[in-house]
TrEMBL record:
The chain crosses the membrane at residues 61-78, 85-102, 122-147, 154-170, 176-193, 214-233, 264-285, 297-315, 321-338, 350-367, 373-392, 399-418. Coiled coil: none annotated. GO terms for biological process: lipopolysaccharide biosynthetic process. Residues 58-191 form the Glycosyltransferase RgtA/B/C/D-like domain. It is a multi-pass membrane protein. One of its GO terms (molecular function) is dolichyl-phosphate-mannose-protein mannosyltransferase activity. The keyword Transmembrane helix applies. This is Dolichyl-phosphate-mannose-protein mannosyltransferase. It is found in: Cell membrane. It is an enzyme of class 2 (transferase). Keywords: Cell membrane, Glycosyltransferase, Membrane, Signal, Transferase, Transmembrane, Transmembrane helix. The keyword Iron-sulfur does not apply. The lineage of its organism: Bacteria, Pseudomonadati, Spirochaetota, Spirochaetia, Leptospirales. Residues 1-23 form the signal peptide.
Amino acid sequence: MFFAVLILLSAIFAMTLGVPDAAFPQGDEIMHIRSIRESLDIGSYTLPVLSGLPNPYKPPLLFWMGMFFDKIFGVSYFSERLVSFLFGLGTLTLFYKLYQSISQSVKETRLATLTFAFSFLSLKFFGLLMMEGAMVFFTLLYVFLFYRSKKTKSASYVAWGSFFVGFGYLLKGPILHIYIILFLLSYLYIRMVRVRRGHFQVSFRPLREERQTLLLFTLSFLIPILWISYLYVFTSSGKELLRFFFITENMGKFYAANQSGLRIWGGWLLYTIPFTIPLLHIGWLIIKKPSNGKNRLFTMVLLVFLLLVTIFHLMPNRKDPYYVTPFIVFLFLLPAMTKVNWKTLILSNYNQYSIPIVYFLFVALAVALRLPLLFAISLAGIVLSLSAILAFQNEKMKFYGVFFPQLLLVPITMMFFIRPMADPDITKHLINSEGQEICVIAENPWTAMDVQNKLMKAKVRFALPLTYRDTCPNADIIVTFAETSLSEDWVKDSSWFQWKQHLNLDSNQILRSLLKMDKRSFQSEVNVWRRGENK
């Protein structure tokens, strides 16, 4: 029954992959989709391209898989996002197997799998064409095979794990190797360093015992060496691509800090929603009373590993919250390793009372934004959660009365809050644009790429406000996402408002706009212009 429900929910989620405007967008996805489609258009299958040139930002595995599914199912958002969806199914399978192996409880494993499947991380990155979903899979795959290797005393598992890390290089470069090296260092540190009576004791015996594991890790370099050799020897721009990728794209990020480190810490809180409080609770229990069980070693290894990867991501100049996504899955493993059941975590006072508070906030938003469906569902969430807390006497009913409203928080946000508030569909404003040249005037080229992805049969060019005459001399349509002074031979055809990605408002202005319910302060006007006599 559990697997039938999971398959049904997965099918429903898969049906949303084809919607161009994702509920939780990520800007880089626009570039990834553009690279796949451009590569298919010009037949550049081995070396993906972007804007007519070899794509220097990322290795090709995600693009190859996107092109593969586009060839099978046709060019569409569904085909391309199917890549991340399949990585998501693979991740859930690995998580289920690993959790069950650790907890030895089918019921707890099913609850944990549901919590991870309905986390903000899963519902966002397993539905977008981003590297993060695949990175979660490959990181968990190595840890899963490493754990199996230690349980079965068989080196073949860790050998396969090391080999698959090489495929991870083809996603984002050497970053996966760094993650796994930090994991192995965490394991060696826990085994080698002991504190006895206030003194550090270091044993080098684990180094000898883990010599085979460390040597097998060299298998992870086979695929990267083959790909780098191919670029260096067989492609005309290979040397320049490698130089840009390693020096500018990777090492250049460590040049100077320009973002707050709080963004990384915020990522741990953001992507564990709606189970952030239970996971903070299990972290507190581990600190307060360290476990002496058989999984204590693995628990401490993961905690050190999570600390090391956090420190690592605090070092580069960019500190985007989603950098921690490959490791969120390990937080959901902590209850199994500490033998704490999910009923205890869900029914903790802090957690259970937080659920009706969130639904009360939904009610307030529904009233302010005039969203009747959100209002009705939020009222039902309040009634169910408060009934479970104050009225239900049966512990099982009380648990599910809190658990299910909590489980549905992110899907409700997606379907009944974000969807009704989404930007208008640009394809409905440019119905007769097939075969025409469209000039997109915006602040950055990603906006034009997004328009091109949605209007596949149109020819889209990007222009800055002051250069559109030179960039788009033969344009049939102009779409202005930035304020522009056009010549008199352009006539406004239609316009709409869309949400701003970057607000130039201070806190007082934002508060005043919210109190006045003035959403125009948070939106910008987009105009469509066509050639014709000025009326």
